[in-house]
Amino acid sequence: MGIVTPDIGLIFWMTLSFGILVFILAKYAWKPILATLHEREKSIEDALHQADKARDEMKALKSDNEELLRQAKEERSAILKDARAIRDNMIEESKTKANQEYNRILEAAKESIHFEKMAAITELKNQIATLSIDIAEKILKEELSDKENQKKHIDKMIDNINFN
Amino acid sequence: MITFSVSQSVKANEEKSKSKKFNAGEMIIEHIADAHEWHIMTIGETHISIPLPVILIFDGKLSMFCSSRFHHGTESYNGFKIAEEGKHKGKIVHILANANGQEVEDEKLPLDFSITKMVLSLFIGVFLLGLIFLSISHSYRKRGVAAPKGLQSLLEPIIIFVRDDIAKSSIGEKKYQKYLPFLLTIFFFIFLNNLMGLIPFFPGGVNLTGNIAITLTLAVFTFLITTFSGNRAYWVHIVNAPGVPWWLKIPIPLMPIVELVGVFTKPFVLMVRLFANITAGHIIALGFVSLIFIFGEMKPALGYGVSVVSVIFYVFMGLLELLVAFIQAYVFTLLSALYFGMAIEEHHKEENH
Questions:
Q1: ipTM score here?
Q2: Is B331 on the interface with A (CB under 8 A)?
Q3: A56, B67, B192, B230: least surrounded by Cβ within 10 Å?
Q4: Are B99 and B170 in the same domain?
Q5: pLDDT-derived band at B240, boundaries 50, 70, 90
């Protein structure tokens, strides 16, 4: 039996059994195996994809958080600034008001002092006048107590009157 | 059912074997060629072998009997015997009685569909492949997309290798799926049977993938698939190859002839490559073993001495053959895939080759 001459019997059995093998394996082995492999690869790919997406989301979330934090900080500083401004304003305002009040009170005091002074001066004047009249009355009473004196005095007064 | 037949060889054979010197060439050819019984071993003069069914069609008549009827090729049965000499040596021939009453071989050979050693080995290989892949297919279905386990994880990288590095890269993303079942089957068929051939005892050791009929059938499968999936561009390329000067086509159709020859040489080369590689491996391995007996016949001590060297070389060859087993399966599958890829390739515009 030469080793380079193919035998018809072997070719027959080979064709038959190999054909059946290809058919059976294709239908019952390769199809489910390849389908499962494909499915697994897809699921792995999906998982990786999702992980990527999650990472991106995390990143976005983080940057969102940072943005929020930044905004909050800004707001805080703005509020602080406002508060400081308000405080300064208030202090300024109250200072002005106090000054104004002080001035007003001072003015009023000055006025009342002036008024009191005037009143006192008038009183004093009146009293001086009354005292003067009293003194004059007393002097006159003394001077006019005798007739002679009275006559002298009247004469003197008549002399002083100009008849014009 | 396989039954072991342990039989005392007949006297004539006994005498012959005693007188016969060790013939390495004959022994090697006997090992790598087909046989009607599966010889397992010989202890002294006792042959242990599995007799196999003989199925013959002669003159339109079917005859089936057990090969043990031939008594290891020494007797004739039912008008048939295994030729011991001549050009049909080892084949079953029909016996005619000539005018002198002597038995002579009929020139006409019966059609031999026997379940020979090769056929049984083929069945074992096919059975194992079926068992292995149906079982892992079952675990794929059961486990779904979960990580592979056991046999599944051993074979999965190879399946993915065939799919991605052979089919996908040679045929292309779009159409590889159609050819993948065939490619996977030939890959594992060749690979498993190559490995089985390396096992030195039953049920291995049969030079199945180094048998020309087996490689021929595989190559014919590849050829038929290539031919039937060839698209218009493929045939145009054969008949009227673009980018070739016109005087190579008219008046003598030189290029078309070359291309047409190429269509047949491709599978022919596939057939020869696998056959030659595997057969050569078996011959070399058996050659090393034969050396022991050749030297042993001269002087037993020399045989023992040589055996050390032979075993070392045999182990080395065995390791090399392991590599060859994979490489040949890979090459056969890769080239088949390339031929399929060529047959379905779309040539868009006139390309310069």
A1: 0.83
A2: no
A3: A56
A4: no
A5: confident
